[in-house]
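Summary for the steering committee. The consortium agreed at its last meeting that each partner would contribute one worked example illustrating the joint modelling workflow. Our contribution is presented below. We chose a case with several input lines so that the handling of multiple components could be demonstrated. No manual editing was applied between input and output; the record is shown as generated.
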Amino acid sequence: MITYFSWWYYDEPLYLWRSIKIITKKFLSSFSIAVLLRTLFDPWKKDVVYLENASLDARFKAMVDNLFSRCIGFVVRIFTILIGLALTTIVFVLLTIGFIVWLLMPAIILVLIISGMRTIQNGV
Amino acid sequence: MAFEYFNSEQRRNYFIKKGFSDNVFYFASFFNLVIIILAILIFIKQDLTNIGYGEILLAIALSLQSYLLAKKYTIYHLDKSNPVNRFDLALIDYFEILINEARKENIQQIEPEYVFQKASLCDEGKMMMMRLGVSYETKSKNSPQNFKPAFSPQLINLISLIKSEVIVFEDLMLQIVESSEPVKEFLKDITVSEKEIKPLLDWLRKMHEKPKRSWEDDTLVAGVGEDWSFGYSPVLSRYSYDLSKHFPDPHLHLAVFGHSDIISEMETVLSKPGKNNVLLVGEPGVGKKTIVNALALKMAQGKSVSALHYKRIKQLDVGSLLAGAAQGELEARINGALSDAVNAGNLILYIDNFQSLVGGYEHRREEVGGIDASQFILPYLQSSGLQVIASITPDEYFDRVKSNSSVAESFEKIDVEPANAEDTFAIMLQGLNLLEYKYKTIFTAQVLKEIIKLSDRYMHEVPFPEKALRLMQEAAVTFASTNFVILQTKQIDELISKKAHVPVGDVKEEEKDKLLNLESFLHQRVIGQEDAITAVADALRRARSGLTSGKRPVGVFLFMGPTGVGKTETAKALAESYFGSEKQMIRLDMSEYQDANSLDRLIGTVNNPNGILNVAIEESPFSLILLDELEKADKNILNLFLSVFEDGRMTDPRGKVLDFTNSIIIATSNAGSELIREKVAANQADGLKELLIEDLQQKGVFTPEFINRFDGVIVFKPLTEDQTAQVAQLMINQLNIQLKDKNITVEVAEDALAKLSQIGYDPQFGARPMRRVIQERVENLLAKKMLSGEIGEHQTVQIGLEEIK
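What follows is the complete predicted structure of the assembly.
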């Protein structure tokens, strides 16, 4: 019994928590959250126009194009970041709930039994 | 708690797990899941819940599932002070087999040697014994008796020395090998050393390592957003491929034995600001590409330093970049590809064979197909926008990079040295399984060692590990079979003998006879000179019997004596007998190297490494080197040969080591000929050698330290009349061999032979005029007779004294 409880409350929670961390890290990595944040305002696919000795009109057009490229980059990245963060959060929360349930399992079983017994007694 | 096997918790754990299979767990869990769903449904139905059966059912189902999980995954809170509790279950499995075997064989106490001896009764042990070339033990057919065998204090002691948190089969075997003298002796008998056991057990450990489950493995792969953060590289994509995507399995473990420090060094250079291009300099085959691949893999797995996260290595395909590019187009292609790499922002460019893109010395640039794109590449190398890893050979580095200081300064140079024998052994083990499976050939540790030994000795042009891997591959292909066969070391000897054209391995009967009767073989070509023949024959026999260190030339001799007494002929005969042909002889007339400047011609210069000796020894390392008239060479050149005679190696001006350990070196000298003649004429030949050496040292021809480097200084004496006649007869015999195709035989009468030997001998030049005399007096005569039709096929021509006058 001591072994059982030491496994349930010590070995397995350590293992579970490490697994939760790895899964969360993998989710964040799958959406490349860190690098997307770092390049959030960069032009889309680094697609920019450089003009030297061009007319003012052409330079203005290039500036608008570059701004547009940055906007597209920002929108796509922020969208991916948000979806990635949302999914990672959901997965993390679900796994954490599972982890808490694991910790509370003996208590849950006890509560269910007591509650069931009481209900049966009251019913009878 | 001390060592306690039978009452250990881990042994109990083993039996529990054995009786509770995965199938039972999954079936019971599925059944339990149905109950849980049912309980939840009941729970949801309020009217039923009121009477509490839902809660009870759910509680029972959850308890049952907890029990199942505990049963499957519980690792008892083990008392680690008992080493048995640190055994993995496979090791307990082996111990159970071992105990059962001891009961059958009535072994009361289990010793370490018994544990090693019976290793092949488990799967891991079978593989170990297969590699060691040891036949498997079979299980005893006796019935086991009912007793608990004890573990010997030695075994308990060595197990307690194992520090691993989890003790596996390989840990135990390694400890036994290190601690048990009988096992050490056994390994010595099968010619396997402790040094080889470790990589072998590491290989075994990797073979049995269970792959991690995805939630246990922290290896990361590239995410969806990486492509959206960096730029396009359309031009570069046409001329390159991504090394980070090159690996079919991102979890692949690419070991780079002996080179992990180079990977760390590369990471440091690539991470720092400023000069952050890497130039790997090493001979082809030292593993430069493997290093770059390993770094690419490390980066792809997110295990590299943080500055290299999200970076990828793309290998530039120089061939396709240069293919069909007209003048001007090449510049556009290079600029396009490199600016793409800069624009992408996350690329490190790998350029293999960097020499194909950069020029260097003028003479190299004029080579066919030689280009110099350094002017286009240089601005990119000097900018911080692009990072490059390039690889090049040391020779090409001297030629093409070092001479161009701008290019050289753009790189951090990292030398890649060849692997040593131990690392090569481990590298060979790594790729072995696939090779064995493909060609159905098994390589034992002894065979691998033989491959390493022989490739080291006979394949000097290629470095480790390449040469050993190449020979291993060749052996697998050559001896491929339809059923699995275990290769023998003698098969490797045969293979290398064929490749190098020299006898390797155990001496066979036919060769044994030849070696034992080498003197008579040499005397078929050389008349007299007993001392010389005996000395060289002895040296050869020593070399073939494996009594030489292999760290010096096979033999180094100084032949001294007048002209025309057989010095060169002895060298030729030796080349024929040892290397199979007298063509295997590098002949250097040392009178052509009389001034210090001629050294450049002999061993080359930094700018032009193609010296006569360098090229010759690299092309034919298995040769006899004849240094004719050595005394005439410049003193600096003689000093150069000191290290060759002593260590069998010479360093050329570029620092490249030339190997002479497979050569026989014979130097000839006419110095002291007069003294020899005088002493022989006065019949005072005793102690002539010592007298001659002293005379030469006094005259300053050779220094004492130079003379001492020779294995033997051999004095060739002037030929006697009788010996001169034998030389004449030898030449007539050679003429008969030439005429064999025409079925004509020449017989020279005794008096005619005496006349020929008299005319053919010159006190100054010995028997050297003999060849000319035979030509003038015998061959000319024969030619006339053949043309006039006087003699035809199947005739014997008698030549008398009258005809040769």
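The first helix of chain B runs from residue 9 to 19. Residues 9-73 of chain B form one domain.
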